Amino acid sequence: MKKKLLSVLLAGVMALSLAACGAGGSSEGAASSDALPTAPTEDGSLQGTLKVGLIGPLTGGAALYGNAVDNGAKIAIEEINAEGGAFQMDYKAQDDEHDAEKSVNAYNQLKDWGVQVIVGTVTTTPCIAVSAEANTDRIFMLTPSASAQDVTANKDQTYQLCFSDPNQGSASAQYISENGLATKVAIIYKNDDAYSTGIYQTFKAKADELGLEIVSETTFMDGSDNDFTVQLTDAKDKGADLVFLPMYYTPASLILSQADSMGYAPTFFGVDGMDGILGIEGFDTSLAEGVILLTPFAADATDDLTVNFVTKFQEAYGETPIQFAADGYDCPKVIYVALQKYASENGGLNVDELSASDLCRILISVLSDSSFAVDGVTGQSMQWSANGEVNKAPKGMVIKDGVYVGL
Amino acid sequence: MLNYLISGISLGSVYAIIALGYTMVYGIAKMLNFAHGDVIMVGGYAAFCASTYLGWPIPLCILFSMMICTILGIVIEKLAYKPLRNATSLAVLITAIGVSYFLQNIALLIWTSNPKAFPNMANFIPAISLGDTTISSTTIITIIASVIIMIGLTLFTGKTKMGKAMRAVSEDKGAAQLMGINVNATISITFAIGSGLAAIAGVLLCSAYPTLMPTTGSMPGIKAFTAAVLGGIGSIPGAMLGGILLGILEKFAQAYISTQLSDAIVFAALIVVLLVKPTGLLGKKITEKV
To answer: What CATH number labels B2-276?
Structure first.
């Protein structure tokens, strides 16, 4: 016991001294000691115990998302520990109730625990706050689901596993155009919401580039978000055969029911905010029949990775995983694969000998490397740009008989 | 054109039915009950629970919802407003806003923020089709209900003994008390009626726009308040007129000018009306006594 305590203390002292070195090195820029830290092992393998911390809303209004990520991450870590041998992940989840201030507190608690890599945070606003802190402290972050550009902007150590908001817009336009889903497109978006307008702008830019004809653009906002007759009539009168809905599922459910009562049946096309529409209590799922949404994860996909994950998830929690659970599952896997790659190229890696800032530099160098690609349940050969945004092919899903079916 | 007019009237009739509750309480108790929108939300949830969880028939659900809201209205009045009977109107206004947030957060605790899809409870008569547009059953029922409530309230305050007592209280509380009117009981009954109406408004609002959340009542409540001011707050036919006008104006502004500017246009119209006629379209002229 005493020995353990001493070793923890020593590790702490070492981490502190190394952290100081790391911070000094990065501020001096590229010119000085830029050699990446190494910690070779005898047999050239990945060893040690990595402390991985998750921050997300485990209680409160957004608890659905935080718990999904947590559950997914636990499954991934079990798998990694089962096959890791000398390498293990020590995992700890902290609740932030989707509140920026509480999220920073949770971050500080994880730091006290000695966290080396952070998975999170789950939601956008807390993530912007925490990633700024972690950037100063040089702790690597991989967020499963915080999608705003502000999350990664000017923070070299924050990476996203999910699409950034603008990417969703251009990916949607691309998908519609490539698959010939429509000739005339209408857009309804929420103009007092950064998520919705962000997607709208990139969608429009991409659609113009691809020659996709946008015939109707209408908006709504808080307070006028229950009646969409004007917007739908406009789309209908101008002959739109596809309506793009970059919004969350609550207003989308009203749009679907009002279009139905108007007898207007175009293809409705949504983004990841639409995920959850089938979960509205009492919602008539037949209204959502034929709705297409672009999301990186389809629970009914038949590839081995997805089948394995979905089966394990259902066994453990008795429900079908949503996209956030898949995001949570992929994050520890990406970190594991990245560390393995580094270990194999540098004569092994013992993570016990490395501080959070060392790992931060290693992970940045591996993830931003264009030869690094990971297959996950949320996308084949995911790659990252140096600014932390992910590049992967989205999957189109269509709602059929009340369930999501991959296109 | 006809299509937009109909959707305007349909939205406006929902505003009107909420505005009737606002104007009723303001007309008698001279206070702005900003919690009215949230009582509507509670009414919606009560009806939703009765129908979805308990499987009751629709008329029973509506009655249950009215009962819950009436009791809630009386309790709110007793606990939050009655102790402030002699306080400044600003204190009462702030309390009302507090009650509004309280109700929203309680609803958040009980029913969580996940939206619920409300079953349509107002579609028991056939829809009318005019050419290629149809007036939905819910719209017709909402309009009929608001007209009935408007006439009923006008008759009630004009003809019945209780109604006369209410008007007396609204005119001068002190003098009414001297005439042997129980001022506290009268105000409580006003709240009871206002909240009962809120339950009906809740059911109709959620039938027309079937997403039920803890914040469902707040924005329509504010729009309906605007409608009540437009029509002349305190005037019962004014609330009806204001509501319908506001709905039509909003839809026409969206359709012919811009969906982005519709709210700005609606509120600009309100300002113009108030500049020309400060008491609203059907408001009583107030003569200042010197």
So the answer is: 1.10.3470
